[in-house]
């Protein structure tokens, strides 16, 4: 089993792991497993299908990597972009947390819960104009606070 797997996938460690996984799977299913053919044939087919799965996974990985490189997508930039996004998100959270309490509440109701200005006005017992003013103030503070980060 190991020799067949190693020859097909070209990696001894992966082949070893593949064979171990097959035996672990057999052991876990020992109570309910019904082998209707010879054990050798069953194991050979198991190896065949596991090899196919590994080769298909490799093919998809290469295809995905090649497509992204063709598009000019540098995989090493993913981490940097994610870190920049996290930094921006943390900065936004900090700015929202520093808004005056009423302004912060109204902003969160609008942006996080998706309530309309009318719904916010009704739930807070204030006029729609007041809600509009608080949202305008919040957006102004956030734009100025994020301006340096975005530029």
Order of helices and strands: HHHHHHH
State the helix count. Answer: 7
Distance between the termini: 59 Å
CATH topology of the largest domain: Arc Repressor Mutant, subunit A
CATH class of the largest domain: Mainly Alpha
What's the main sheet like? none
Percent in helix: over 70%
Tell me the Rg in angstroms: 29 Å
Strand content: under 5%
Which features characterize this protein?
0% strand, mainly alpha, 80% helix, 151 residues, Arc Repressor Mutant, subunit A, 2 domains
Question: What does this molecule look like?
Answer:
The structure is a single chain. The chain has two domains: 69 residues, no CATH class; 75 residues, Winged helix-like DNA-binding domain superfamily/Winged helix DNA-binding domain (Arc Repressor Mutant, subunit A). Helices cover 80% and strands 0% of the residues. It is built from seven helices and no strands. Helix 1 runs parallel beside helix 3, helix 2 packs across helix 3 and helix 4 runs antiparallel to helix 7. The model has no long low-confidence stretch (mean pLDDT 86).
């Amino acid at each position: 089993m190991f020799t067949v797997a190693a020859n097909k996938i070209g990696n001894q460690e992966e082949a070893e792991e593949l064979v171990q996984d097959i035996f672990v799977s057999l052991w876990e299913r020992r109570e309910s497993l019904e082998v209707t053919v010879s054990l050798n044939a069953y194991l050979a087919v198991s190896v065949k299908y596991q090899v196919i799965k590994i080769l298909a996974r490799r093919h998809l990985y290469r295809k995905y990597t090649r497509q992204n490189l063709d598009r000019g997508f540098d995989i090493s930039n993913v981490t940097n972009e994610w870190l920049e996004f996290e930094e921006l998100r943390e900065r936004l959270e900090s700015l929202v947390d520093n808004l005056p309490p009423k302004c912060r509440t109204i902003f969160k109701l609008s942006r996080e819960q998706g309530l309309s200005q009318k719904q916010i006005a009704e739930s807070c017992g204030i006029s729609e104009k007041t809600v509009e003013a608080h949202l305008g103030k919040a957006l102004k503070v956030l734009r100025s606070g994020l301006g340096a980060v975005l530029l």
